[in-house]
Design goal:
alpha+beta; Helix Hairpins; Heat Shock Protein 90; 4-stranded antiparallel beta sheet; 10 helices; elongated
Amino acid sequence: MTDLIDILAGIGLFQPLARHELESVVALGRRLAVPADTVIFRQGDLGESLYVLLSGGVTVLRHDDRGHESRVARFGPGNYFGEMALIDGDRRSASVVTDCPSDLFLMPRDQFLGFIAKSPPLLSNLLSELSGRIRETTQRLVREEHDSQLRAAALETARQHAITQMVTGIAHELNSPIGVCTTCISLIEDRLTEADLGDPAAGLDPRHLREPVTLLASGLRRVVALVQMFCDLAASHHAEDVQPINLAEAIGDSVAMFRARPAKTSLTFKVPNPASGPIWNGYRLLLARVLHHLFQNVEAHGYAEGVEGLIEITVSEARLDDGDPAFTVTVRDFGAGISADVAGRAFDAFFTTARGRGHKGLGLTVVFNTVTGPFRGRIGISGAPGLGTAVTMTIPARLDAGTD
């Protein structure tokens, strides 16, 4: 009992009390040793005891209306908690969990209220400490709200900028093929008008129409391809169901499909072994589209035409920021590499270093939108000039149907 009195005497809440008063406090409460990861009380429980942390540590957790958990605070030895619900009789506003073996002293609500009613120094000290905590909490909430508003404003500015860039890029990309089509149609109309006004017996020479018709068809194919790419940017997955997929096997299928097309470069693929492939609950078709764009990007930028190149795809287990299980899929080449400034803009819509070779700069944007949208994951790109490039995607091990 003596050691407990000495510990309480050093805690701010009880410092105004004389030793005989501390003896009364100890007699009213009880000591409790608990292991790590023990829930002291849960959010919503009735406030029945005041807790003093003698040794160890606890984490204060709060859940919002959607069940999302956030860490509010961490307390070490000498701190106390649970006093708010203890005083007003309301339910606990947060949960408290030990993060290591801890030693606690708890005093039931009735005994605590009865004791502070007879001890003006303790009541005064308690009110002073509560005021300090409330002031600190208020200041923290004001700072967080201010920071949140600044982040929201920055995100809105970035969103508007991205929309402006997207609209400008779409207009630019569509303007050229639509202009060609319009010119060809006008030319064909002129030729037909000339034929109508000329000698009917002479007819219309098909050779006069071959070139404009060819240009018209080429322009329309470009428009169709661009519109399809813009649809891909939305990364919509509502037409596909979540299904269990052997991730290594799905990667192998995507590689086989890519190799079946006419190739500009000679690429060799190193893929995970399907026999030991993990099971991913996700979207097979979207995964194939993501990999196709990544392979195309390597083909366009990683290796020169005619050069034999290697693409290595690896899969490993990982964890998301919230601790949920995930998989990391890395697509790596060993070619030309990428500079830091290009890597920083690689996922921007219409950004490309090969526009002169007909590239639109949308493939990696589709990849980014898919990984961060339907896959609910994160993606990064790294490398250095001459040392190859790696695109790393971390995606949840399980995707729930109907989530975005």
